[in-house]
Amino acid sequence: MQKFKKVKGFIPVIFMFLLFVTACGESKPPDASGITAVEIGQGKINFRFEVTDDKEETLVWNVSTNEITIGAALLEAELISGDVGEYGLEVLFVNGIRADFNEDKAYWAFYVDGEYAMTGVDSTDIEAGKTYAFVYTPA
């Protein structure tokens, strides 16, 4: 009977661990690059978002949204923030990391399918099958 009490007392610990793991977000198995993508957001439109940070580490999200532009979807998911200026949204923070040219002598370069984007993030429509990325870029 003593052994049963020890196991019975351990069950809530296992339950709390499983609850914590599932609450932290779902993730898919690693893709061909070996990077695990985190699922974020809700909506009918889905796209892949990659961030290469100031330490040259890459994180990946599969974003679900009902927004039309990449900028609106990433703002909604709280993955980017910045200032709106004459030319649209100037992204200063990506995944909580600042790249302010005036302060850090670095900026966030925006890419679509590995190519430098020809439009700003807030004027780039989401297209199925494309990968969107920000890369921390020192000046």
List the helices and strands and how they pair.
Elements: H1 2-23, E1 37-41, E2 45-52, E3 58-65, H2 70-76, E4 80-85, E5 88-94, E6 97-98, H3 101-104, E7 106-112, E8 115-116, E9 131-138
Q: Can you put this structure into words, describing what you see?
A:
By secondary structure, the protein is α+β, with helices and mostly antiparallel strands. It contains 3 helices and 9 strands. The strands form 2 sheets. It has a 6-stranded mixed sheet with strand order 1-3-2-9-7-8. Strand 7 and strand 8 (115-116) form a beta hairpin. The longest helix has 22 residues, at 2-23. Residues 10-30 have low confidence and may be disordered.
| Class by SSE composition | alpha+beta
- How many β-strand stretches? 9
- What would you call the shape? globular
Widest β-sheet, arrangement of strands? 1-3-2-9-7-8
The helix fraction, in percent, is 10-25%
- As a percent range, the share of strand residues is 35-45%
Distance between the termini: 68 Å
Nearest-angstrom radius of gyration? 19 Å
- DSSP helical segment count: 3
What average pLDDT do the residues reach?
84
H-E string: HEEEHEEEHEEE
Largest sheet: 6 strands, mixed
**Residue windows where pLDDT falls under 50 for at least 5 positions:** 10-30
List keywords for this structure.
139 residues; six-stranded mixed sheet; three-stranded antiparallel sheet; 24% helix; 38% strand
Task: Report a brief summary of the structure.
Helix content is 24%, strand content 38%. By secondary structure, it is an alpha+beta fold.
